[in-house]
Amino acid sequence: MADPWQRAYDFAVEVARKAGAEIRKASESEIKVMTKSSTVDLVTKTDERVERIIIDSLKQEFGEDTYAFIGEESVAKGKPCILTDKPTWIIDPVDGTTNFVHGFPFVAVSIAFAVKKELEFGVVYSCFEDKMYKARKGKGAFCDDERIQVSDVTDIHKSIIVCEHGTNRNAETVNKIFSTMQRILRIPVHGLRGSGTAATNMCLVASGAAEAFSEIGIHCWDIAAGAVIVTEAGGVLLDVDGGPFDLMSRRMLSANNDVIAKRIIKEIIIFPVERDDAVVSMK
After folding, report:
1. Alpha-helical segments (H) within 107-160
2. How big is the CA angle at 126 (ends 96 and 56), to the nearest 5 degrees?
3. Which run of H or of E encompasses 59?
4. Measured distance CA(68)–CA(55) in Å, rounded
5. Cis peptide before 188 (omega within 30 of 0)
6. Which of these, 196, 239, 23, lies nearest to 96 by C-alpha position?
7. Per-residue pLDDT for 217 more than 50?
8. Are 211 and 153 in contact (CB under 8 A)?
9. Average pLDDT for 50-75
10. Distance (Å, rounded) from C-alpha 98 to C-alpha 70?
11. Terminus-to-terminus CA distance in the chain, angstroms?
């Protein structure tokens, strides 16, 4: 039986490279910044242009009405953020916009594909590293065509944990984020790290460079592609309270195994965030 999604997967890799080349080119010219929801949540003309390049390329290849799309910039402009049974592309054109604006060299193109609300494949292209991470459900995870797998560390004291600050600067939220980091450091672990891009962080877990990554306040487009890559590399995905992973919840823990995941969960101080599909679900 023919594989129905191989062509889409291969094309996603091609489009991610094309988008990454556009980002590298843009980094050499003047960066024009517009503020989105906060002073640390930035969007550039590059984000908008790259998302158009990705979506237009997909529509040209597969037709206007074949698939649905969830794109970061499209949602910011009022498009719905909901998964249906229709095959859906989930796109973050520039994951790590703040990095891009400041010239910090971790920026990724993230493209995921869901079928009947289940993630089928994910592609993460780390533009400035020129690393292509990719995975298909049931077929393994790869970086530049070499198979990758999570680390075999089970001793939390020998782990590196990835954390991010997010964009919420509410004092109570900031205190909870840093209290979580302090609790993890006091375990103690080998160290805390953060690249500034959720997609890249998840690929670090998938490739064995870190043992876990957790964040509250991320969006589905930040983590959809990475979710496939982590699980296909042998890792686990959970909610930050230990429950099942929910792509739309804006809460996620990815880890190399259940032992590390459950230990980190004990230290996470949870704070409320609105779901990505909250507006739709209230109708």
Report:
1. none
2. 80
3. helix 45-62
4. 10
5. yes
6. 196
7. yes
8. yes
9. 93
10. 21
11. 40
Which of 24-33, 83-92, 135-144, 159-168 has the lowest average pLDDT?
Answer: 24-33
CB burial string 217-237: b at 16+ within 10 A, e below: bbbbbbbbbbbbbbbbbbbbb
What does the alpha-carbon distance between residue 98 and residue 107 come to, in Å, rounded to a whole number?
9
Cα–Cα distance measured from residue 5 to residue 67, given in angstroms and rounded to the nearest whole number: 12
Residue 209: closest CA among 167, 245, 161: 161
Q: Where is 147: in which H helix or E strand?
A: strand 146-147
Q: For the chain, what is the mean pLDDT?
A: 93
212, pLDDT greater than 60? yes
Bigger pLDDT: 37 or 148?
A: 148
Q: Mean pLDDT over residues 13-29, rounded?
A: 94
Q: What is the mean pLDDT of residues 4-9?
A: 94
The torsion angles phi and psi of 97, rounded to 5 degrees, stand at -60, -40
Both tokens assigned to 75:
């949602």
CA distances from 263 to 53, 154, 189 (A): 42, 10, 11
Which stretches of the chain are assigned E, i.e. beta strand? 33-38, 41-44, 68-71, 88-95, 108-115, 118-126, 131-136, 141-143, 146-147, 160-163, 191-193, 212-216, 236-238, 251-255
Residue 233 has pLDDT above 50, yes or no: yes
93: nearest Cα among 63, 55, 149: 55
Per DSSP, the three-state class of 274 is coil
Position 282 scores a pLDDT of 40
Angle at Cα 276 formed by Cα 117 and Cα 49, nearest 5°? 90
Instruction: Give yes or no for residue 173 having a pLDDT over 90.
Output: yes
Residue 9 contacts residue 113 (beta carbons within 8 Å): yes
Other CB atoms closer than 10 Å to residue 191's CB: what's the count? 12
Pair 20, 27: CB distance under 8 Å: no
